[in-house]
Amino acid sequence: MTEVSSPPRVRGWTxxxxxxxxxxxLAALVLTVLAVLAGSGVADRLGSGGWEDxxxxxxxxxxxxxxxxxxxxxxxxxxVGSGRASVDDPAVAAEASRLAERLAGEKGVVGVxxxxxxxxxxxxxEDGHEALIAARITGDEKTMGETLDRIAPSxxxxxxxxxxxxxxxxxxxxxxxxxxQEDLTRAEIIALPVTLVLLVMVFGSAVAALLPLGxxxxxxxxxxxxxxxxxxxxxxxxxxxxxxxALGLGLAIDYALFIVRRFREELTGGAEPLTAIATTLRTAGxxxxxxxxxxxxxxxxxxxxxxxxxxxxxxxxxxVVLLAAAAALILLPAALILLxxxxxxxxxxxxxxxxxxxKEAGTAWARTATLVMRRAPFFALGTTAVLxxxxxxxxxxxxxTADDRQLPSxxxxxxxxxxxxxxxxxxxxxxxxxLAEGRATPAQYAAYKERVAALPxxxxxxGPLVKGDAAYFTVLPKGEPVDDAAQRLVGDLRAxxxxxxxxxxxAAAVLxxxxxxxxxxxxxxxxxxxxxxxxxxFLLTGSVLIPIQAVLLNAxxxxxMFGAVVWVFQDGHLSGLLGFTSTGSIETTLPxxxxxxxxxxxxxxxxxxLSRIKEEYDRGSASHALEAVGDDDHERAVRLxxxxxxxxxxxxxxxxxVVMVAIGTSRVTNTKMLGLGIAxxxxxxxxxxxxxxxxxxxxxxxxxxxxAPAPLRRFxxxxxxxxxxxxxxxxxxxxxxxxxxxxx
Length: 744
What we know:
The chain is 63% helix and 8% strand. By secondary structure, it is an alpha+beta fold. The strands form 3 sheets. Strands 2-3-1-5-4 form a 5-stranded antiparallel sheet, sandwiched between helices. Helix 8 (169-203) packs antiparallel against helix 9 and helix 11 (273-300) runs antiparallel to helix 12. The longest helix has 35 residues, at 169-203.
């Protein structure tokens, strides 16, 4: 059957994706196999850091100290326990010294020091039963991990009178990387079967349910190959793999749901499979394309930030969104053409009831829309007030850095660091280092040290240790390593006069620089997301007001997520139930990441709803011909739009939430926060904002919702896109009006 009713551009695309469906699917299978091979071992190539600004003063100082004074930057700690004996017992001291000497001879290990050599009080526990051997493993993250894997087993465990446990930054990051890999595998094992069951409940047909799942798997495997390639040229965080799985399944299922549902709707209406595919691509396919662009825009904003942790999520997110959309718009139509009416085969719901589902669900959504629009002021104000109230805890947010407490309390590196926090004097590893560059005399070093020691937040200043024209001082602040006082001290140290160049590093300095870097780029990222989103939604709707509403309501839908993140993960509520250790702060980059991801997903559902409302509005306005379009037509479009997409959006949101909750079962706190937080945001957006707030606001704005000034109407008439299938002009049977453009 020919596609005489399709616009030429869409007809050409339909013909392209359906001309040789078997060849298309075979090519996809070959590419997927190649992606599996290319992406194998990707996790081993990814890093577990990336929270710091690479151009910051603290980063420069850290690298300089690592190079010139490796003893100052230990990343490997051996916690040596002596049982009931004292660490000063001769037998204990002899065995510990032997271990330290042996460690100093290991390849890739430098700067070995110990309590038994230096007698430094900071390396000995206050109870006298534990002490530390400190060293530095050299190389990049991959090399350090390999070195740790090689040497750790021979030091961990019992050695005569001592018991040794392995910790330090390199152990924390390596254990975090391993834990994330294990958790991601478990999340996939949980998410895939649950998702399949939910899809069967949505579609009834097992065949139709398998299609979205297949698209998701293709997107995930393809993105892993992309990340593997990127890791050869730039740093990529292993945390990004969690987003790959979540968005790969979630968005691919969203897009496939939308396309398969529309295809089945057209078949039910009597269309032949090829005609049904043409209509589906012209309507739902166009919406999928717009949705993918809006999600990609939100994720692309993270490229503006210098931290490779955030940039990694942009790499992974953009790749998986584009691959999911491409698979949904190319592979899925080919599969649907081959299946035809068999897409409804294996209807498992018949096992539980004798007939096909009725339209009761759609009727319920229509009644909901009618009720909301009848009481629009109440629902608009009430819903907004509740969302704002849920977001209030975020006003008390405190930003911090990621540390060993991201890991479960039973993790070895967490245990080591917790012993150090609880039992060792001072704040080992929590001090600030001041790098001094430039030739100076002992008197000048002494004078600078006195000025630093006089600062109000300083407990003690050690050093300087001099090597050529470089030296460094260690400054121990009062209180916690990264609290407000320590952060103020960073500024005071950087403002202290010195006869040489000084640069400050340490945990508090890294946090200060990270916060500054994010604050500097945040307005640009927000402006980028807002401007491009406004433009894309205008192209879809032709309205000036709808894009503004979309941006504001999407941002409002995220308040519950941010409030919950602070209340749960910062303040520690439900920490026992969820199994994590609260640090009293939120890692600085996490809110940015969660905003970009959740905003993009909210726009995903917003585009689905708005496109269908626009389609119904255009259909109604076209049917009036020369008559004026009234408020009744506007409300009817909103009601029908919600009736025909409410169940679909809710199903998609629930499925995506299931995937995010599976990710949220991770034992790493940041991953748990990301998964559970975005799951909450997705459900709030679909079930509250799209169901209540959007129809209420659109009822209040009435016909003005669709207004645009004449120049913008002309621009949209030429470049905009909509889903409306408008009737042909009189005297031109068999030909449709151009679907490009909007009528207001």
